[in-house]
Amino acid sequence: MTTDWHLARGYRYAGVHSGLRPDPNRLDLALVVSDSPASAAGVFTQNRVVAAPVHVCRERLPAVAARGVVICSGNANACTGQRGLDDARRMATVAAEALGCRPEQILVCSTGVIGRHLPMPVIEPGIRAAAAQLDGSAAALDRAAHAILTTDTCIKVATYPLQINGAEVRLTGFAKGAAMIGPNMATMLAFVLTDAAVAPADLARITQTAAAPSFNCVSVEGHTSTNDTLLFFANGRGAPLEGDVLARWSTAATEVCCDLAQAIARDAEGASHFVTIEVTGLRTEDEARCVAKAVAESALVKTALFGADPNWGRIVSAAGYADVAFEEKDLSLWLGETLLYQAGTPLPFDAAAVSAYLKGNRDLLLRLRFTLGAASCTFWTCDLTYDYVRLNAEYTT
Fold first, then answer.
1. Pairing relation of β-strands 345-346 and 363-370?
2. Pick from 277, 124, 107: which is nearest to 190 by CA?
């Protein structure tokens, strides 16, 4: 249960069962509202197939006077043509009517099955019901965080206090995501709210900055979805943050996003291991991320980790096809604290001990060290299990 302490001020939340999902106990529609007009910015999927809510958000961001976002789960409203766009805009209009603001001040997100039209006779009364239940408490935030889940097993919430010029400002984030997770971004929705004053242009830049080492460094199976959305809202009054103070706030915002991204990887569908991949010693961050991503998304690496098989050659070979120039002597590899491969040469190791490390620890660490520069990347993923295959083989049936 989230606590009220340190929640960003000036926001209210609601989560309701609208009927989009058949289970009457399953929340499926959320509303998040800023009590005053807020700066807003977003980062979205890089898939060429883009859901209707993403189109609507892109049209409206960055914004100087946003009031909130309405979110439904169970239906992605993706690949739904003009009707999908009309339905997404209608969701914003209904929310705006209930809140007494302009439709363009409301953003829209959806998550769920692709290729199905929204049941608007269910959605519209659900939005009105959510507006009637808006509350600023942690309990209300929990309900909103539950309402956006699909195959997630738990909510993902992070909140940070920060002292700025003798006063406390706060950042509160929540997210969903468990599969169809690949960088740039994934089937994930994330929302970061702050009571600091941040100019729209700065917020747009920081949203991109915060996404790079967080949501763009997490992968479950590498499938970039159609609905990926990260939204930032900043409703603080007074002069916007700038200079060193803005940089400190930006660092805190990135920490919130990294916490949420790790929570997504930990809750990956069917996963039995949370895997951190640290790549160091390359020429650029893009090179380091490219290698980490190749390792993270290798089905052979992921299945070896699941089976506690210390088959480290799969990791090295995945790095080798990452389209980053290096020679074998430039790379060394550790699995946990065990050095397996040093400067292009295999080392003797206790296979039973390494297998025991894989079996006995949910959190695993892979370290790939190059000798070509000072750039690095930390990337999060999971193993690939029988349950992942079962869940996704039966997703709509």
1. unpaired
2. 107
Tell me the pLDDT tens digit for each residue of 315-348: 999 999 999 999 999 999 999 999 999 999 999 9
**Domain locations in the chain as residue ranges:** 11-266, 274-393
Q: Which run of H or of E encompasses 367?
A: strand 363-370
Residue pLDDT, tens place only, 130-153: 999 999 999 999 999 999 998 788
Nearest alpha carbon to residue 29 among 136, 226, 189, 268: 189
Burial (CB < 10 A; 0-12, 13-18, 19+), residue 82, is exposed
What per-residue confidence (pLDDT) applies to 157? 96
The answer to whether 187 is a known catalytic residue is yes
Instruction: Return the CATH class of domain 274-393.
Output: alpha beta
Task: Please give the CATH number for the structural domain made up of 11-266.
Answer: 3.60.70.12
Which candidate in 45, 187, 207, 381 is catalytic?
187
- Predicted TM-score (pTM) above 0.85: yes
